[in-house]
Amino acid sequence: MATEIQATKTMRKIMADHFFELDRAAKDGRPRIAWCTSVGPAELLRGMGFLVYFPENHGAMLGATRMAASCIPRANSVGYSPDICSYLTSDIGAYLMRTTPLQKAYQIEAVPRPDVLVFNTNQCRDVKDWFAWYAREFKVPLIGVHSYHNIGEITDFELRDIAKQIEGLIPTLEEVSGEKFDVDRFRDAVRLSRETSQLWRACLEAAAAIPSPWSFFDATIHMGPAVVARGTQEAVDYYRILLAELQQRIQNQVAAVEGERHRLYWEGMPIWGKLRSLSELFASLKTSVVASTYCNSWIFDQLDPAEPFESMARAYTELFIVRDEAYKERYIENCHDLFRFDGIIFHDAKTCPNNTNNRYGMPARLAKKLGIPAITINGDLSDLRCYSEEQARTQIEAFIEQLEGR
Amino acid sequence: MIYVGVDVGSSNTKVVLLEEDGKLLGSAIRRSGTDFSAAAELCLGDALRAACLERESCEMRTVSTGYGRRNVAFSDGDRTEISCHARGCFHFFPQAATIIDIGGQDNKVIQLDYAGRRTGFKMNRKCAAGTGAFLEEMALRLDIPLGELNGLAQQSTEVVELGSYCTVFTATEVLEKIRQGRKVPDIVKGLFLSVVKRVLEMDSMGERVVITGGVIAFNPYLATMLEEIIERPVLVPPYPQLTGAWGAALLASEL
Ligand code: SF4
Fold first, then answer.
1. A49 to chain B, minimum CA–CA distance in Å?
2. Do B200 and B129 meet the contact criterion of CB atoms below 8 Å apart?
3. How many CB atoms lie within 10 A of CB B204?
4. What is d(CA A354, CA B8) in angstroms, rounded to the nearest whole number?
5. What's the pTM?
6. Do B120 and A390 make contact, defined as CB atoms within 8 angstroms?
7. What distance in angstroms lies between residue A85's CA and the mean position of ligand 1's atoms?
8. For residue range A309-357, what is the model confidence (pLDDT) as tens digits?
9. Cα A352 to ligand 1 centroid, rounded to whole Å
10. Is there a smaller number of Cβ atoms within 10 Å at the N or the C end of chain A?
11. Selecting from 3.40.50.11890, 3.40.1010.20, 1.10.10.10, 1.10.287.130, what CATH number does the domain A8-185 have?
């Protein structure tokens, strides 16, 4: 058995506090609650005194608890296709069924009611459609940033436009919160978010050590605060603790997978409902999944309190998901230099083409360029009807047999 | 020592017994049914009987493979069917090759280098298109015994092209062709063509192509059709349905 990460307890407390605080605010009507997309303008919202709730995090919980299976069909029945984002369908389905994983985990009856919904389409259009449903349901304002996509070189024009769009959110937010925008408070949130991000990067890069002190599967759990609490002191403090522990593990040669023989990169979304069984499968094959595009997506190095709007625009445009194929390939090549993995697993997530990168020949191109094999596993982030455990297992085992034979 | 390969596939279980020098001692095939471990036991019994051997007096080493590879109580190790098919094919054709395995529920395309090392593989997606299950379903719809498909396809004079991908859509398309009065052999050849196309979509074909699996064992005309399309000979190992089990037995000898 691999040694458990001690910081997990602290992480769980941060997540619990996050939901308790939101629940209290929802009941008291103060502070105001903003729903935000996972790579949306959270710093601005925090800097304006909102508590921030992330429906995608809720989507991941629905996936991890496998509640999604019963919730998705409910959303399908009101007209949302089973082919679109299963975070969206499971989340709306859960709302319609008046259920949430928060009930069992924290005895919280319902997700916190929003006062405003704020999106950024940098990741996909689904988030806007998703929030639009709740805007109609709760009759609250829906505002957001419309991003560019498939970007190679980022141009000043794009950045200026995005920065202006972020700034343009302020009047509505002021109206909803009843408070005046205070630039210093905003700068503070940006600073804390940057610190969180830098520490999160350092934690992820700790997996470059051989053997790796933690894996992608651990990181999908420990990324919670980087997603929901970025821009807060708690998140910064947490990643200091985690980083210290990871560094200690490296020093003591504590491996995520005992007897690590192979190292892999995971491209695409996690399969939330199967994290445990996949993690056990890889461990039994002495294989550590050391890095992933997904966990790296919450690194926002460009944030700069001196230029809060511009740097936010840059940070949220530099993201992998917003970029063109050539950039994405270079990105994974750079990861290969750092993490020294010997194979890549592409997850073709049926309902998220945006986070799926195998469909236009990238696995074959990267395999050739890097001289390492790649495979594609068909599945989904939350809709397990799209996943065949047996097939995936055979493919992964065969892949490791192939690595053994090299 | 007898080397045993057990391939517990989704439709059939196959057992191959090899002597130390690699000679075939016996083999057996039976339906996998719902109890994989019983199927493996019984199939081993059949193979031993075919080889006139008593289980008690044999020293055996076994590798299991296939969908039910972990349900074989007497196994000394398991390998995926991808490794076993690759090993089995390389035994018969020791050269760099693209291996196609058309199974009951999935298809595989495996690339081997000159030394028999695997350089890549693909499995079909979770869909019956192009697999044995597809042909079974269509035979049922057309009310033709499975064993007659191959002969019918060979009689075709004008293949009926079927456009869809999905088994259910194809079934509807087939019904429409029947209504249009198209001949059954032409429709069956159309079904075969659809299987070949699904396989060719999976990966690119190397210079040498080897095809294995139960479907090819009973429908060898598929190999001929494939040859015509890719314009190069397609090699079929002896006993193509046993290739996976054969590979497993060879891997048992290397344990
Ligand atoms: S990026 Fe994918 S998983 Fe995330 S919200 Fe959009 S469609 Fe859903």
1. 48
2. no
3. 9
4. 38
5. 0.93
6. no
7. 6
8. 999 999 999 999 999 999 999 999 999 999 999 999 999 999 999 999 9
9. 6
10. N
11. 3.40.50.11890
